[in-house]
Design goal:
Blueprint lengths: L1 H15 L1 E2 L2 E7 L5 E6 L8 E10 L3 E10 L8 E7 L3 E2 L1 E5 L2 E10 L2 E10 L8 E8 L3 H25 L1
Parallel strand pairs: 1-4, 2-4
Antiparallel strand pairs: 3-11, 4-10, 5-9, 5-11, 6-7, 6-10, 8-9
Length: 165
């Protein structure tokens, strides 16, 4: 019986030092470039970051997700800062002086998406910003018109070159 109480106490203590939050960025407007962002709550020192960022695309889009953390001293960085766009793979981590970013970009179909961000805070009051952007994917007809226009410009240029010669 004592073992159960000890195990329950350990689990309760561990839950106080972890952050598990879900941030809903909302719905991106498919008619033009749209971006949504939010900032996390401030973390305490040595807190496990275990956050989920959700967003929805109403139409196929060229989309990107980014998370940005700035810090004034190295100890303020979120250690092992990483993310995964669920169902699409890992997000690239770039670390610089006083800044680290997570980024992913690519084509996404219409639907709901979740990015899982993890890490371990260094100093208290650490926070980071998450954002998602989308630009509609051009329809096949748009590419057809582009190729037709390029062909027309090429034909005119060739005709002018023949006249000049």
């Amino acid at each position: 019986m004592k073992l159960k109480f000890i195990a329950a106490g350990i689990l309760a203590a561990a839950s106080f030092s972890a952050s598990a939050a879900t941030y809903d960025l909302g719905i991106l407007d498919p008619t033009g470039f749209d971006t949504l962002s939010a900032i996390t709550t401030k973390f305490t020192a040595n807190t496990a970051v275990d956050d989920f960022w959700t967003f929805e695309l109403l139409a196929p889009s060229s989309a990107s997700f980014g998370a940005l953390q700035t810090f004034s001293v190295a100890g303020g960085a979120i250690k092992n800062f990483s993310a995964t766009l669920l169902g699409h793979g890992p997000v690239t981590n770039t670390i610089g002086t006083h800044i680290q970013t997570l980024s992913w970009g690519g084509q996404l179909a219409a639907g709901e998406y979740t990015v899982h961000v993890t890490g371990l805070t260094g100093l208290k009051n650490a926070a980071y910003l998450g954002s998602v952007s989308a630009l509609p994917v051009p329809e096949p007809e748009t590419y057809g018109m582009l190729l037709g226009g390029l062909a027309l410009v090429g034909a005119v240029a060739r005709r002018r070159a023949k006249k000049a010669a």
